[in-house]
């Protein structure tokens, strides 16, 4: 009796594959050249965690339909794909290499819970640098494509939304504040993280695609190859993309604009508001300063109004990006607006201004809080701070929950988790401290040629 050959096995979805296998599934056969591993994190041993050699990310050069591209694949099996310092540095190196080699595109296969809480200060700084280089690379003509192959939350969601195009496989979820974070902040009565239907309706790939925030693509290598090939065939100029996005994400109803009130930071500088809300102020003829959000959230609606003002500030030569807020808004309403997209757009607007020759300097004049700091002042190539400034990379309760450490004992003196700005400065995140009663005047004097 002749035994028929076995039927070929159907291809496995990417969500079931390890990172290297995901890259291999997308690439032309035999074209994958894996780059040197990111190196294990030096920060995890203190928490009793065994570090992984690649720190949860694999990068490679490959061909797709004969075109040279560089790609990264995150490993959600290692600490939920969290982005540590070495992980972020590997992503940054990939972008720099793509520009140097003239690659046709960078493809990011994302699967991450966001910045690694165990490495708060170092990780947030490293990923912020990678985000800045991503938007600068796009401004220089590099196509960046992102595919969510699993959950993508926190800072990783901003990176995803900062790409030229974003695709999600059906099982992926994406958002700035995850379900459990919202439940903790707002209470189970407002949002139940265990309610699968509610979570999918807010974060799920189908919901994001229906809202026009991403392309829904089958979790199949062939379908994803086709999506990538279509994006490669129809790139959009960075400036046109930013301008179009600024219109697309505009709120349906603008909140009422109060009369501009000069921030304390600008007292004595003869500053003039450049927009109806007083979000952007001019000093002299060619310096503009963004208003700090002191005591308030860095919310997406206000940020969009700020971006509109920035895009109209054609004659500004220097922009001071001030930073002081209570962080991004954590609520179901904020996720419904998809704050990840709005913060990513803000980072892209800043990149567009840099590409147009606007010098940018960040000023941490109060609290740099989580994603707000990450997408705002940390996007400036140089950052100065007042000595009393604080950096809250992660909420202490979240760090305590994940690490199992008594965060109260670490909040002031721990190099990675401590909030006083001296710790962030020790990681290279601050270019200088501005003493005195008028830090803006000191900064402007420092900037003078």
List key phrases describing it.
2-enoyl-CoA Hydratase, Chain A, domain 1; alpha/beta; 17 strands; 449 residues; seven-stranded mixed beta sheet; eight-stranded mixed beta sheet
Characterization of this structure:
By secondary structure, the protein is of the alpha/beta class. It has two domains: about 15-235, 2-enoyl-CoA Hydratase, Chain A, domain 1, CATH 3.90.226; about 245-255 and about 265-445, Alpha-Beta Complex (2-enoyl-CoA Hydratase, Chain A, domain 1), CATH 3.90.226. It is built from 16 helices and 17 strands. The chain has helices at about 20-25, 85-100, 120-140, 155-160, 180-185, 195-205, 205-210, 220-235, 240-250, 300-310, 330-335, 340-355, 370-375, 395-405, 420-425, 440-445; strands spanning about 35, 55-65, 65-75, 105-110, 145-155, 165-170, 175, 215, 270-275, 280-285, 285-290, 320-325, 360-365, 365-370, 380-385, 390, 430-435. Strands 1, 2, 3, 4, 5, 6, 7 and 8 form an eight-stranded mixed β-sheet that branches. A seven-stranded mixed β-sheet has the order 9-10-11-12-13-15-17, with helices on both faces. It has a two-stranded parallel sheet with strand order 14-16. Helix 3 links the parallel strand 4 (about 105-110) and strand 5 (about 145-155). Helix 2 (about 85-100) runs parallel beside helix 3 (about 120-140), helix 9 (about 240-250) runs antiparallel to helix 12 (about 340-355) and helix 10 packs parallel to helix 12. The radius of gyration is 22 Å and the shape is globular. The N and C termini lie far apart (about 90 Å). The model has no long low-confidence stretch (mean pLDDT about 95).
């Amino acid at each position: 009796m002749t035994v028929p050959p076995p039927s070929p096995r159907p291809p496995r979805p990417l969500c079931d594959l390890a990172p290297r296998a995901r890259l291999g599934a997308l690439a032309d056969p035999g074209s994958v050249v894996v780059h040197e591993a990111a190196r294990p994190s030096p920060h995890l041993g203190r928490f009793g965690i065994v570090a992984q050699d690649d720190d949860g990310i694999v990068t490679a050069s490959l061909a797709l339909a004969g075109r040279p591209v560089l790609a990264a694949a995150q490993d959600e099996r290692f600490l939920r794909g969290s982005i540590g310092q070495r992980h972020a540095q590997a992503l940054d190196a990939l972008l720099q290499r793509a520009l140097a080699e003239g690659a046709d595109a960078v493809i990011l296969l994302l699967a991450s819970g966001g910045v690694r809480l165990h490495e708060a200060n170092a990780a947030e700084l490293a990923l912020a640098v990678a985000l800045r280089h991503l938007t600068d690379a796009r401004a220089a003509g590099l196509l960046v494509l992102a595919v969510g192959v699993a959950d993508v939350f926190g800072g990783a969601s901003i990176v995803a939304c900062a790409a030229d195009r974003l695709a999600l496989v059906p099982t992926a979820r994406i958002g700035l504040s995850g379900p459990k974070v919202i439940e903790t902040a707002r209470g189970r009565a407002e949002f139940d993280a265990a309610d699968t239907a509610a979570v999918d309706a807010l974060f799920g790939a189908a919901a994001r695609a229906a809202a026009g925030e991403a392309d829904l693509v089958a979790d199949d290598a062939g379908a994803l190859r086709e999506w990538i090939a279509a994006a490669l065939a129809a790139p959009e100029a960075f400036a046109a993309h930013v301008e179009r996005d600024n219109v697309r994400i505009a709120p349906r109803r603008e909140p009422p604009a109060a009369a501009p009130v000069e921030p304390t930071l600008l007292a004595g500088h003869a500053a003039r508001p450049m927009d109806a809300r007083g979000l952007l102020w001019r000093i002299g003829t060619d310096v503009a300063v963004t208003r700090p959000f002191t005591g308030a959230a860095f919310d997406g609606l206000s940020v969009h109004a700020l971006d509109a003002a920035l895009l109209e500030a054609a004659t500004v030569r220097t922009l001071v990006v001030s930073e002081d807020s209570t962080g991004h808004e954590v609520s179901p309403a904020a996720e419904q607006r998809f704050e990840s997209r709005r913060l990513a757009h803000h980072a892209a607007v800043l990149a567009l201004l840099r590409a147009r020759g606007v010098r940018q300097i960040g000023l941490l004049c109060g609290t740099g809080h989580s994603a707000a700091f990450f997408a705002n002042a940390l996007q400036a190539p140089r950052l100065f701070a007042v000595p009393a400034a604080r950096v809250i990379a992660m909420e202490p309760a979240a760090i305590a929950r994940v690490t199992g450490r008594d965060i109260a004992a670490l909040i002031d003196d721990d190099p990675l988790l401590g909030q006083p700005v001296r710790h962030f400065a020790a990681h290279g995140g601050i270019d200088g401290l501005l003493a005195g009663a008028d830090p803006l005047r000191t900064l402007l004097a420092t900037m003078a040629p």
